[in-house]
Specification:
- By secondary structure, the chain is of the alpha/beta class.
- The chain has three domains: 1-86; 91-187, Beta-Lactamase (2-Layer Sandwich), CATH 3.30.450; 193-446, P-loop containing nucleotide triphosphate hydrolases (Rossmann fold, 3-Layer(aba) Sandwich).
- The protein is built from 13 helices and 19 strands.
- The protein has helices spanning 13-33, 39-65, 71-86, 92-95, 130-143, 193-199, 204-215, 230-238, 290-297, 314-324, 341-352, 358-368, 432-437, and strands at residues 4-6, 9-11, 100-106, 111-115, 120-123, 158-162, 168-172, 180-184, 220-224, 247-251, 267-271, 279-280, 283-284, 304-307, 330-334, 371-379, 387-400, 406-415, 420-425.
- Helix 1 (13-33) crosses helix 2 (39-65), helix 2 packs across helix 3 and helix 9 packs parallel to helix 10 (314-324).
- The longest helix is centred in the first third of the chain and has 27 residues, at 39-65.
- This is ATP/GTP-binding protein.
- Belongs to the GSP E family.
Length: 466
């Protein structure tokens, strides 16, 4: 078996697996003798056992080779064993790289990385067989903090996990030719609005406008296509909620991290739970949906409810909360263009219950929503450019319009005649006085270019709308 180069040193992963097996057995014996050992103590003991076993391996290799192993090789073997025992094995080097945005595995031999600058690069395999990759995934499932052990088998070929760094892992077997894995990273876990200004996602005028929307307790829906940056923007908006205000976050997997950002002291984080695979009386045993969480959250004396991503029947409960509550609720929704947002809401309503109607969806959206913030992206990496993510539209929902559809005003939008795709001020909202009471300077909306110093730098700009 060809050794794998890791950190400039060749690592024999066959040896790594053998050492890991020996260390695992010794650690299991130790845990039986000392039950209740916490994770930090287990890792400390693991380091000690690994160093002992690597020393044994090093002596045997020296005899076999006729020359001693180098300190760098011993250290690389020890780290590889530790990563396999306690972390994510060969995947860990990519999880530790802040520039890696996504990891794709299309069978054990085909591994790709997406970087934050838009590059996609093929890298070395993270396992030597599909079965080894599956065992790594099962180990990750067993070690995932706060989540029950989840199998990956013919009976249950899907696996969804939140890794220790907050990354989201989805794996599929059997219904695919091999083991397929996607890991989505969270490079800006604790972003705030100034961070997004620095990244070029919005300018300081829109920063102050969105800050006022949150502080004025406006109901805001962040919308955009997949990977446009909706969750990142929602995290930043949450930072504008008072640290002592009590609110809940409802998510299928924790991605907002409001309970870990060091800012909020009264957040109630709630996470949906998958079924254990069994069916009882026609219901998925153990399953807790976002809809279930929504009903419980409404009874917890909260000032706001935040849903990480609305994508099912919980849309009805979310808009009811927006209509009935004090305001300030936030959520995200997938849509490819601002013009289809209300159609997407209606689609989810019709999927929720048989007695729901398009007219009801429109009415509740008109009554419950105050603002829709649309996040766009333009990817020019294929022609040597960059991937740009930015807010392109802010729509104020003003009530029911013609045909029963919600009516909107475009408060911020692109100025195509200037080649500007990003959101710049177009008009004042009807609720401008509410925002002024929350500290917003309305004069900022009078500058048609906002605070941008120049249009979005694109290699190709046809002046087309977003």
């Amino acid at each position: 078996m060809t050794p794998v180069v890791s950190g400039g040193v060749q690592v024999d992963y066959a040896s790594v697996r053998l050492i890991k097996k020996e260390v695992g057995e010794r650690l299991s014996d130790l845990l039986r003798a000392r039950p209740g050992m916490n994770a930090a103590a287990q890792e400390q003991q693991g380091r000690h056992l690994i160093n002992e076993q690597v020393a044994v391996w090093s002596d045997a290799e020296a005899v076999k080779r006729g020359v001693a192993t180098s300190p760098a090789e011993d250290a690389a073997i020890a780290q590889a064993v530790f990563d396999l025992q306690f972390r994510a094995g060969r995947l860990q080097q990519y999880l530790d790289n802040a520039l890696v945005e996504n990891i794709f595995i299309n069978g054990f031999q085909d591994v790709w990385l997406d970087f934050t600058d838009g590059r996609r690069l093929r890298v070395a395999p993270v396992a030597n067989s599909d079965e080894e990759l599956r065992e790594l995934l099962r180990d990750l499932a067993r070690r995932t903090t706060g989540q029950a052990e989840r199998s990956l088998s013919t009976a249950d070929p899907f696996l969804a996990l939140r890794l220790s760094d907050g990354s989201r892992l989805q794996a599929v077997i059997d219904v695919t030719p091999g083991t397929y894995v996607t890991i989505r990273r969270h490079s800006m876990r604790h972003a705030d609005l100034p961070d997004l200004v620095e990244r070029g996602m919005l300018d300081t005028t829109l920063e102050q406008f969105l800050r006022a929307c949150v502080r004025a307790e406006k109901n805001v829906m962040v919308v955009g296509a997949q990977a446009a940056g909706k969750t990142t923007l929602l995290r930043a908006l949450l930072k504008e909620i008072d640290p002592d205000e009590r609110f809940a976050t409802l998510e299928t997997e924790y991605e907002l991290f409001a309970h870990e950002n060091g800012h909020h002291r009264q957040v109630v984080p709630m996470e949906a739970r998958e079924s254990n695979g069994e069916m009882v009386a026609g219901q998925a045993a153990g399953e807790i949906t976002l809809m279930d969480l929504m009903y419980r959250a409404l009874r917890m004396t909260l000032t706001r409810i935040v849903v990480g991503e609305v994508r099912g029947p919980e849309i009805a409960a979310m808009l009811q909360a927006m209509t009935n509550g004090a305001g300030g609720n936030l959520c995200t929704l997938h849509a490819i263009h601002p013009s289809v947002v209300f159609d997407r809401i209606a689609e989810l309503y019709l999927l929720a219950q048989a007695n729901m109607s398009e007219a009801l969806a429109y009415r509740q959206a008109a009554n419950g929503l105050h603002f829709i913030v649309f996040v766009s992206s333009i990817d020019e990496t294929k022609i040597g450019g960059h991937r740009h993510r930015f807010v392109s539209h802010v729509l104020e929902v003003t009530g029911i319009g013609e045909g029963g559809r919600p009516e909107t005003n475009t408060i911020f939008g692109p100025r195509q005649e200037w080649g500007e795709h990003r959101a710049v001020p177009l008009m004042h909202p009807r609720c401008i006085n509410d925002l002024r009471r929350a500290g917003f300077d309305a004069v900022l909306l009078n500058d048609p270019a906002g605070a941008w110093s120049a249009p979005l730098p694109l290699l190709i700009d046809e002046g087309a709308g977003l």
